[in-house]
Every structure is written in C-alpha cells, then in structure tokens.
Design goal:
CATH class of the largest domain: Alpha Beta
Number of helices: 15
Structural class: alpha/beta
Order of helices and strands: HHEHEHEHEHEHEHHEHHHHHH
Number of domains: 3
Strand order of the largest sheet: 2-3-4-1-5
Oligomer: single chain
Mean pLDDT: 88
CATH architecture of the largest domain: 3-Layer(aba) Sandwich
Strand content: 5-15%
Low-confidence stretches: none
Largest sheet: 5 strands, parallel
Shape: elongated
Number of strands: 7
Length: about 325
C-alpha cells in the first residue's frame, strides 16, 4: 500500500522532476541527444534517484521502454551468479526495434559484493556499444573505483523544506485531501529531505481519518513533536529524575518510539533549545552518541535511556 501514492505521483519525464536542478539539467541534455554514458546516481533515500533513471529511460525509448530495460534490485540479487547470468545475458542480446542500445538499471548497487562488482566492470567494458548501465546507490564509496571511473557520477542531495512542502501540497490537491497547514509542516519536518517518506506518511494518515492533522501525522509516523522533546529536556532541568523518566516513558508509549529513534530525534531537536549553552549542547551530543552506540550494539533499551536521563538531570541541575 505505501508505494501506491509514491508510484502514482512519480514524474514521468526528466523535465517533470523537481528539486534536483543541477542533476536534471545534465540529464535533460542526455534525453535530448537520446544517448548517454554509463551513469552512477548516489545520494540519500527518497531524493529521486530511481525516478530520474526511469524518467530518462522513458524519454529515450518512449512508451515501449520496457522491451529495452532490465531493472534489478541489487540488494536482492547481489551475488556473482546474478551478474554473470542475468545481466550478461541481457547485455549481449541486440536492442529491440530501432533502439541503438539497451539500458540496465541496478538499484541499490552498493549492496553488490566485491566479486560481483568486478564481474560487472568487465561486462560494462565489453558491451558499452550496445548497453548502457545506470547504477543507483546510497553510498558511492561502496562502489569500486574501476566502476566509478566508467560512469558519469550524479550526486543527489536531500530536498529542501520548500521543495518537500510544494510536493505535499501538489499530492494533497491531486488526492482531494483535507489537510491543515500544521500537518504539511509536520510532514516536512519528519521527512528530513526524503520525499518518499513524506508521501508515505501522508498516505498512512489519510487512510485513517478524512482530515489530516498535525497530531495525526506525528502519531502515525513514530515521531515525537518537537515541543514534547523540549518538555522532556526542561523536565530534566526543573523536575528531577523521576518526573523526567516518567515523561520519557509516556513519549515512548504515545508515539511508538524505539530507543534509537528517541535518541536521534532528541539529538536533532537539541540545537533548537534556547536555554542550553553551547558547551551543554556539546556534552549532551557526546552522551547521546554513546547511548546510541550502546543501543545499536544490543544494550538494554530501558536502562540505557534511564542512564541518559540521569546524566541529563545531573548536568542540567549542576
């Protein structure tokens, strides 16, 4: 269900993509020439990498783009056998119809093993005349240098708050949703530049109630409102350990937060708290990093969060 709106509102051509102006300008040139070199798209999730690849393919091949496209998720088929069999077999066959080349799109290419990337490098070299590769990844550092040097690298940045807001308004109007301005602001806040996350959050909220409100967005997205996180910090300063610990438990239960989620959200909000000095923010950030590491390594959630609360109380009351 969560992918339905994302796919429905996905731009169909390169020219329709918004929020990646420098990238789209270069891709539009390739679309106009109906040709391009091997491409490597890298950047955070939800910033338009897959959309850009599919839009470019449609611009080049038109409505029958599927005949000359092999789309694979490299995290599902990440081994050497998949590259040697499926990819090589598609690359070595002639393009369909009047097309000059085929396109192989490997999503999440940074999940490929080193051996698989080595085999892919050789295929890219052998079939460069009849096949173009588009690789998409979150971390280009996980792609071996020989592949990077064969590709034109495009780096996608997180979308700005204004760009996310504009897209939320556009989708809301298209779906005829009753949504408040505060809810739009909340979706922009929780997305952190990830448009897919914003649209998915909007769809989930709209499925539960006819009117999408700010409170509903936060309740359905496992995100605590900024003012609640600030109240927790203020409680550590003013009310002592037991009251702060009780407020922490209420936050976790009300918004369905995991320990790492709470630490990350609290860290993000830390820099917006006026009553904390610069040195306090530095020290608290260091403690939160330590607690986050312990939670990731398997430390008990309750005792680690209580330890963080105790440190906050001790520091803020001193």
């Amino acid at each position: 269900m969560s992918e339905l709106w994302v796919e429905k509102h996905r731009p169909r051509t390169v020219g329709e993509i918004r929020g990646q102006a420098a990238v789209i300008q270069r891709l539009a040139t390739y679309a106009g020439k109906k040709s391009f070199p091997h491409l490597l798209f890298s950047g955070p999730p939800g910033t338009g990498k897959t959309t850009a690849a599919m839009a470019l393919t449609k611009d080049i091949f038109g409505e029958h783009y599927r005949e000359n496209l092999l789309e694979m998720n490299a995290s599902d088929e990440r081994g050497l056998d998949s590259i040697r069999s499926k990819v090589k077999q598609f690359a070595r066959t002639a393009p369909y119809g009047k097309a000059a080349f085929k396109i192989i799109f490997l999503d999440e290419a940074d999940a490929l093993t080193t051996d698989a990337q080595g085999a892919l490098r050789r295929i890219m070299e052998q079939y460069a005349e009849t096949c173009r590769f588009i690789l998409s990844c979150n971390y280009s550092s996980k792609i071996i240098e020989p592949i990077q040097s064969r590709c034109a690298v495009f780096r996608f940045r997180p979308l700005s708050s204004n760009e996310v807001t504009d897209q939320i308004i556009k989708v809301s109007k298209a779906e005829k949703l009753d949504i408040t301005d505060d809810a739009i602001e909340a979706l922009t806040h929780i997305s952190q530049g990830d448009l897919r996350k914003a649209i998915t959050g909007l769809q989930v909220a709209a499925a539960l109630q006819p009117k999408v409100t700010r409170d509903l967005i936060y309740e359905t997205s496992a995100t605590a409102p900024p003012e609640e996180l600030q109240r927790y910090i203020a409680s550590c300063r003013d009310d002592g350990f037991h009251v702060a610990r009780r407020r922490l438990r209420e936050l976790l239960d009300t918004y369905g937060l995991a320990g790492t989620d709470f630490v990350n959200q609290l860290h993000r909000e830390l820099y917006n708290i006026d009553f904390l000095s610069e040195m306090s923010k530095l020290e608290l950030t260091e403690w939160m990093a330590e607690i986050d590491y312990r939670l990731v390594e398997g430390g008990g959630e309750q005792i680690q969060l209580d330890a963080m609360t105790a440190r906050l109380v001790k520091h803020l009351k001193s």
